[in-house]
Amino acid sequence: MFWEKDIETISRDQLEALQLKRLQETVETAANSPFYGRLFQEKGITPHDFKGLDDLRKIPMTTKEDLREGWPYGFLAVSRDEIVRMHSSSGTTGRATVIFHTQSDLDSWTNQLARCMYMAGMRKSDVFQNMMTYALFTGGLGFHYGAERLGALVIPSGPGNSKRQIQLIQDFDTTAIHVIPSYALHLTHVFEEVGVDPRKDTRLKIAFVGAEPHSEQVRERIEDFYGVRAFNSYGLSEMSGPGVSFECTCQNGMHIWEDAYIIEIVNPDTMEALPDGETGELIMTTLCRRGMPLLRYRTKDLTRIIPGDCPCGRTHRRIERIKGRSDDMMILKGVNIFPIQIEKKLMEIPGVGRNFQIILERKDFNDDMILKVEVEREYFTGDLKKLESLRKTIVNELKSDILITPRVDLVEPNSLPTTEGKAKRVIDNRKD
Ligand code: AMP
Ligand code: ZN
To answer: What is the pTM (predicted TM-score) of this model?
Structure first.
């Protein structure tokens, strides 16, 4: 039932003692990085100041902007020789942040993932098909090594190529899959198209779903169609990736591994600490990372700690399904996109007007982006070929920048709604 019973069912007192010890080590290591070295000096913080867990609050929070400013090596706390891997967030070039790992960082991350999958019921005898991108994105490699550590047979299918996915599932008796929820729903059509009923014609029993927000309704659809139990998996590259927080077989919230992270929930406007049960922004501190420790990192993800004990016996607290984000980041097909990226790109293209609007739709379980862009009036007079060629330029420019192909509608100047104050750039019509 447990991958590591002692640590998973550790008493609160022992857990806090372990956290304090690891926090002291982490702060000492972090002090070697240019960013924290400077910050500690400015604030007069020394590693010896950390006598209790509350002392963590002496440290200002770290943001994604800090990470960007520290690009590429500003957060590195060990010599570069010790680094064996880098990953980055799924945001595209301009907005990506980079994370470095030593071998021991990778070992503890891999172990965390094995712990998650074991908790959800995966065993050595399982065949695990990993439909996630194997690249800078952490979802592919993270789960891959975790499943190998657990001892399962791993099929590194990667994403896409739907018919082949189904073929692999059938030919190799895949029992567990790791998949982005929107893709899992999209794949249902392909199953129907090829006449395969996963409930009857496959051995599937477990699906790990994560990397993007999704509702309980989506989980139910996945479970119904595939005949599996679907487990929510939450993580972010800044905290190594997946394996941060995961559902147990009770499926009533995700245990967040408190031996590896200190968590805080704060009001995102005032930064005030919130008690268990109240919804706010999740703030995280790494406890098992030497290459690039992060202290009080603002995840921007909104959730709450579920008060009370879990019947499974694990003592690590649970967080609720992520409710949304406190910033304007959109997650489309698992890719993180900020409206500002689109704005920047659009505004570089001659002929583009002043206003634009992003509309997100979900059709056939697939996310689509429709971009309404105002263009200069001259494009609407005379030769309409010019308009079409501008439209194509915009599509191509954006495609190479945000990795998503938007549908672009060009409209006349001043025809899109404007608001007083902050522009409402994004209309999210996606419903589950
Ligand atoms: P990345 O660092 O590119 O992997 O993106 C991490 C972000 O994806 C997180 O901060 C969340 O906003 C989102 N995310 C990851 N897993 C989940 C999940 N299970 N539910 C909701 N959002 C998720
Ligand atoms: Zn549990």
So the answer is: 0.84
